[in-house]
Design goal:
The chain is of the alpha/beta class and about 300 residues long. Helix content is about 65%, strand content about 10%. It has eleven helices and six strands. It is elongated. It starts with a helix and ends in an 11-residue tail after the last strand. The N terminus and C terminus are likely disordered.
Length: about 300
């Protein structure tokens, strides 16, 4: 049972790495484009004024900007482009100067601030990720919900599109911890996060808001679609968990933004209330906001 759960954990973190690689590539591309702007400007000025050596020091800025926004790789790309431009436009000075070594050393000296800034980027990125993500599941945490939730609520209000919050609580989680230990409990939480993320995908945000509580935030879903999504998540999680020997299920509460909803906190509290209301009735059947006309699908 634990071995199967470990395999799921491996697959999950592999998927997370692929998602992280895609996001990093996007950041690097943006950093490269932003870094190219000051480089092009400096290069044009240097050509226009017939290459003033006093302005060479400013060519350290573009790779530093790229490194700060996207890490070492885009910084090095900008640096290499600068070296190529120098060789094409003014590289002949290496042959005519009496101290070509110092010319090369000056150019390589631009690497030092670029590497330093890239290390600063890595540190800031790591701190930001730790502050906004749950270390066990890799999902966004409650702190991230405060910012992302407000933004999603505002966008939903501006676009007049429905905004849905689904709150989940794992039934029987305490019993798993007591019977098999906290490592098994962690596997259940990872399995739940994998299942939710599988069906939400890139169409919404998934948060771990507490010990065994998870929250889904999605825009644009109709009530029937919300009910179907909830049904699929609960059915697959319960089936997979029981196959592995974990006797757990899910209670859920679904709420959608209404004209009277004043904030994301109001919407989250409504979903939370419905979840605990449903939890008193039975295990694993969604409590749904009647005002939102969301029909419950029973697993």
């Amino acid at each position: 049972m634990i071995e199967t759960a470990q395999k799921i954990r491996t697959v999950y973190f592999s998927a997370r790495r692929h998602q992280g690689i895609a996001a990093q590539k996007k950041r690097e591309t943006t950093a490269l484009l932003v870094g190219m702007l000051p480089f092009v400007g400096l290069f044009v000025v240097q050509v226009w004024i017939n290459r003033n050596p006093l302005l060479d020091v400013f060519f350290a800025v573009p790779p530093c900007i790229a490194a700060l926004l996207g890490g070492l790789r885009p910084g090095l790309v900008i640096f290499c482009i600068e070296c190529l431009a120098y060789l094409v436009d003014g590289g002949h000075s290496l042959m005519t100067t009496k101290m070509p070594f110092l010319e090369l050393l000056k150019g390589l000296g631009f690497l030092i601030p670029t590497i330093f800034v890239s290390l600063l980027y890595q540190k800031l990125d790591s701190m930001s990720n730790m502050a906004s993500h749950d270390p066990l599941t890799g999902l966004l945490n409650r702190k991230a919900l405060e910012t992302a939730g407000e933004q999603a609520f505002h966008v939903s209000w501006l676009n007049s599109k429905p905004l849905t919050v689904i709150q989940y609580d794992c039934d029987g989680f305490k019993e798993v911890n007591d019977k098999y230990g906290h490592q098994a409990g962690d596997q259940v939480l990872i399995l739940l996060s994998v299942t939710i993320k599988k069906y939400v995908g890139e169409n919404g945000l998934v948060f771990r808001t507490g010990g065994d509580e998870f929250l889904v935030l999605m825009e644009g879903l109709e009530p029937d679609e919300v009910g179907l999504l909830d049904h699929l998540i609960k059915s697959e999680f319960r089936k997979t968990a029981w196959e592995q020997g974990f006797e757990v299920g899910l209670s859920s509460g679904c709420a959608q933004r209404k004209p009277t909803t004043v904030s994301i906190d109001h919407l989250v509290n409504e979903a939370d209330r419905l979840m605990y209301q449903q939890k008193k009735w039975t295990k694993g059947i969604a409590a749904v906001n009647p005002a939102a006309s969301i029909r419950s699908h029973h697993p």
